[in-house]
Amino acid sequence: MGLLGNELAFAQSLTAQEREGVMALGNPKHFAADTHLLTEGDRSSHVLILVKGWVTVSVATDRGATRLILGLRGPGELLGEMAALDPHPRSATVRALGPTEAQVISGDAFRRFLAEHPRVSGLVIRQLTFRLRSADQERSALASLTVLQRLAGRLTELSGSGGAPRSPYVPAGSSVVQLAQDELAASIGATREAVAKSLRLLRTQQIVRTGNRVVEILDPELLALLADGHAESA
Questions:
Q1: Averages of pLDDT over each 10 residues, the chain, 234 residues
Q2: Could you tell me if 97 and 187 are in contact, meaning their C-beta atoms sit under 8 angstroms apart?
């Protein structure tokens, strides 16, 4: 499972000349917190390169208003490339976690740039492949792991204690994940009630401590063991 990914962001993979060229194709745009940068089902084809801030990538589920968070994206990330490369509607919604700035590039201009820069085109293909593999892993986790395992894995990832980059939900130098239970549920494809039950078990075993929109990791090693399917009887 992984919301953050472990590859270098798109813009950071470019040479200085490539980065200057692709950024010159668009214009900067600022988004307020909770604003949709891209909306699932929309027919637009522009792409975004995040300059500042973090966003969530989510999709609607069969449970009506419930959404499943597929990823967290930060500065340098490319967004919306699938709609620029094919005629289908947007496959996910991108929402700003806080004030966010992005370079907005038309789909036509982006496609022309890729045609003229095969190396950059290869980077986009590599990113699409990586995200597809990540989505496959998420689906596998939903089918084969318990809610407790998925929650333990997500908390381990977001806190950075599993070696992943530290997420925007965790203050620097902290082991506290700042997420509400419904947001945690959306990040692992579970109900809020199931997450609350798993958190009670983790609290009982003194693995975490919880507060209002806060989960403090007390025992990261045991949490990681739970995520891997060990110590289920803890």
A1: 72 96 97 96 96 92 73 92 92 93 97 97 92 80 87 89 69 82 89 94 94 92 86 48
A2: no
